[in-house]
Amino acid sequence: MSNTDNQGDVWEVFIQSKPGLPHKHAGSVHATDKEMALQNARDMYTRRQEGTCLWVVPLNAIVSSMPEENESFFDPSDDKIYRHPTHYVMPDGAKHI
Amino acid sequence: MEDVKKLEEFQAKIDSEIKIEPKDWMPEDYRKHLQRQISQHAHSEVIGMQPEGNWISRAPSLRAKVVLLAKIQDEAGHGQYLYSAAETLGKSRDEYIADLQSGKAKYSSIFNYPTLTWADMGAVGWLVDGAAIVNQVSLQRTSYGPYSRAMIRICKEESFHQRQGYEIMATMAKGTPEQKAMAQDALNRFWWPSIMMFGPHDSDSPNTGNAVKWKIKRETNDELRQKFIDKTVGQAEVIGLTIPDPALKWNEEKGSYDFGEMNWDEFWNVVKGNGPCNKQRLNHHKKAHKEGIWVREAAIAYAKKQKEKQLVA
Questions:
Q1: Model ipTM value
Q2: Mind telling me how many Å the CA of A88 is from chain B's nearest CA?
Q3: Structural domain of residue A72, as residue ranges?
């Protein structure tokens, strides 16, 4: 298949299922421009009233952390238990805190 | 040495039900197995549009027509979800489609059978989608994250397919004697191919071993087939149709149905490309793909032009 005959670029699709909720990753579509990406996402991922808003993002615009870096990337938060409310000792009888 | 350790870590993740995601390390055979299985699943959804498309222009009512159109559009969507999942394994959609068209990749043999009457639309929805659902419900728990997510989405949509098929069968079964006979004939033709959709017996299935160990498959071919049969027998009884298997009999002891042996010569013959419609299905796919070239070229040219405009402004 030549370069002028392909399925277009990959765009990742995010759906907000109702107002107030975050957009959540749903899958991907192929498209050659942003309007087409949005229309394809609508046809593919919202055939049953799944959403109130759609985002499409070119795959190559997403920067991801890599699994092999997980240790150095996420572990430092392991030993900072003082970031959690349960770390603090409350006097007996204290309420609403 | 490094790989042995990685393999152990990988198996430990699988054993403790942690999903594998695209960027994670995975054994090459795991990747290959998924590329094959997910793309075949995607091809099946797409090729599966053809036997049903055959009846759009002849649907017996406007209701039946809009339902059939919606169902076929769903199948296209399911194919896309699955291609999306397959692409996360580092192989492009163009490559997958090329493999389908060259015959290197297979799709479910069930779609190589013709749909001769309107009752076949009932039988396909009830039995073919019914069998697919049993398989897909099980695959929701597959170990590869993107495949599992695609299956969850598909299962949500699929139950309408089976119900609309069963409704067609039920309606015809209580119609005129000719209509009932047509429904029975469709059941007769689609029963055996449907239960063969689950694949060869576990003892003869070359792809089961690692697939179960790696939790790509959560249940074996024979287990899934038994589930489908146990569900379906009662549904046939309710609408007064007879499953064409004289050996079919409730087994009180094992709490499930015994059934007759499938015709595996026929199965392998269709897999090898000699079913009634193999050539037609593939040729149609190639033709549609070729006829769409100008659309893809125009879209790329348009996108390029828009980009240039933006640069100037």
A1: 0.86
A2: 32
A3: 9-87
